[in-house]
Design goal:
By secondary structure, this protein is an alpha+beta fold. It contains 3 helices and 8 strands. The model has no long low-confidence stretch (mean pLDDT 95).
């Protein structure tokens, strides 16, 4: 039996958005922290807080909603590369999400970054997920 902590992370965020929660608390890891930083930089979440309680720590993520319509900033959050089937791509072949309106989060040799940054730096890597 394999577990996929990144898929669990994305599912917890999706479930919190569907339930209209303002904050979601998720067990921390290095890759989850990097993905959270990218989501904040690109404006998909309001803020985050890393707490070091216990051996692992937690990430508290403040979700972002439109002030008047109450629609979430994250409409779709989809896992692409899975533990059973890793998906790697070179810089030129990284797919564009909704023709550039969304982002693909890519794990590269220089860290976790968006598809646009990876193309700009001409770096390929594992495509972790799509966000739109």
């Amino acid at each position: 039996m394999q577990s996929d902590p990144i898929a669990d992370y994305l599912t917890q965020i999706r479930n919190a958005i569907k339930a209209n929660h303002k904050v979601v608390e998720i067990p921390a890891s290095g890759i989850k922290k990097s993905i959270t930083k990218v989501l904040l930089e690109k404006g998909y979440i309001l803020n985050y807080l890393f707490t070091e309680d216990g051996p692992q720590g937690t990430i508290k993520i403040a979700l972002k909603y439109h002030p008047t319509t109450k629609l979430p900033a994250i409409r779709e959050l989809k896992r692409y590369s899975k533990p059973g089937l890793r998906k790697y791509s070179n810089a030129q072949a990284i797919p564009r999400v909704i023709n550039g309106l969304g982002i693909a989060i890519v794990s590269t040799s220089r860290g976790v970054m968006t598809d646009k940054e990876a193309r700009r730096d001409n770096i390929g890597g594992e495509i972790i997920c799509y966000v739109s």
